[in-house]
TrEMBL record:
The keyword Transmembrane helix applies. GO terms for cellular component: membrane. The chain crosses the membrane at residues 50-74, 95-118, 138-161. This is G-protein coupled receptors family 1 profile domain-containing protein. It comes from Adineta steineri. The lineage of its organism: Eukaryota, Metazoa, Spiralia, Gnathifera, Rotifera. Coiled coil: none annotated.
Amino acid sequence: MCTLKLGRYASFIFICFAIVHSIALGSSYDVQPTLGCALSNYVAVEYSTFFFYPVLGGFLPIVIASSFSALAYHNVRRIVRRQLPIVRRKLDKQITAMVLMRVIAFICLVLPYNAYRIYAINFPTSRSVPMAYAVGRLIQAIFSSISNINFLINFYIFILFSSRFRRQVKFVLVKRCWQRWKYWCCSINNRIEPDNNIEGRNSQIESVENI
């Protein structure tokens, strides 16, 4: 149902929405003497608590990813019942396993940060309590780092659950990158350089002959 043209339009719309949404939500933050940079608008606090983090940042992506993983699983079950080549069945099973593991990783990595942000917005810690404030910042940094892993874990998940992907990575690293690097190093070592000291050696040879 989705074409390349429709995908481009949808990507452009989502990018514009993300920019406008980030500007609108970022303008609601204010630097407070005791809490630091925090939401000062009551409407923004309610919006972040009941929609942004639980729905837009957590529940909605999980539902979308889970729906497509369920559709992929249903498609594989339907393909197994059909008379298709064995190679096609194996590839579809690998894709389904990759999608399912990606959804599980997304849920485990994103939910802790969203849950903590909802708690931190509604129960902010004052800077007048240094120990509690430092612990809160440390927990937020840990959950934020775990959440950022969500954007770089695709490669490792596909390496673990797809033999075809492993072969392709091996081909690219060994056949392409390694061969090019080896050729580049060998060409540097075998390069012919001009001899700038030829005049000095000629003078030494002439002095020896005169002796």
